[in-house]
Amino acid sequence: MLLLLPYRVDALEDRRPWANHLLLACLVAVHAVLLARGQGLPEALVLRGWSPAGLLGSMFLHADWWHLIGNLVFLWVFGNAVASRLGNLVFLALFLGAGVAASAFHVLLSDAPAVGASGAINGVVGAYLVLFPRTRVSMLWVVLYRGGTIRVQSAWLLGSWFCLDLLGALLGAPGIAYLSHVGGFASGFLLAALLARAGRVRFEAFERPLFRGPGEPAPAGPPEARPGRAALPSPPRPAPSPPPAPSPPPAPPAGPPGEGVSITCGCGRELHLSSRFRGGRTVCPACFRELEVPRAPERARDQG
Ligand SMILES: [Zn+2]
Questions:
Q1: Which of 126, 243, 252, 260 is deepest in the core (most CB within 10 A)?
Q2: Segment among 8-12, 90-94, 97-101, 214-218 with least mean pLDDT
Q3: pTM for this entry
Q4: Domains, the chain
């Protein structure tokens, strides 16, 4: 028995990812209804050729419970972080867009019928790689009768994941729709990269996304910037305007709105976060220890 299952990521979440919860519920509901009807998968929704119903509908069908549960785990782990950062409606569009692109890629290069959300979920994973390449993914591993947990940097994990899918697609391994995985991953990666480049995604100063918007400050502070990765010399900008805030986050329960929160890790690294992350968890970018983000500003607590 060999198993490698992600169960948690370290990405900062700043809003409730309800769109992902909705998708998870939809996938379970569709499978349960079809099972209750007992007539197998509806032929019209199976991906077979260029039928629009199949291109869109096949991502909500699953061959059996194991197929479904595997997909639910990956969507839960990576989808919550991506939905939280992109916004719920954008996330829904990314999921459906990547799913259709995955289906189209499959139809283009293969005649085999296919079902499953894994193409769309690979799109979510591709977006995760763009947004959070330096975070850690916690995974459960089981080999024969031994098991444990391991944390791996997401750039390495998801990069090798994509390479394995690419290899599977090139070798034409049967049983798994590798082509749709590759198409989904690539389209999710591309969509997230475009959104990030357009400045539609907000990042904290210490985060290291693969792409940033033109108006966003490059990660400042040399503490953990490596020589090879130091900020590129950029032409001087006359007056850096503040990045456009899509919609002001709800004011935190305590403290003036807009005021950030500072925490100091045990390793000495100081982190400055926007107040929208209050009450959440984060991970020290220097030593990868888990840190709680205090709910109220420290000063207010001292006075009380
Ligand atoms: Zn630290």
A1: 126
A2: 214-218
A3: 0.79
A4: 2-197 (1.20.1540.10), 247-304 (no CATH)
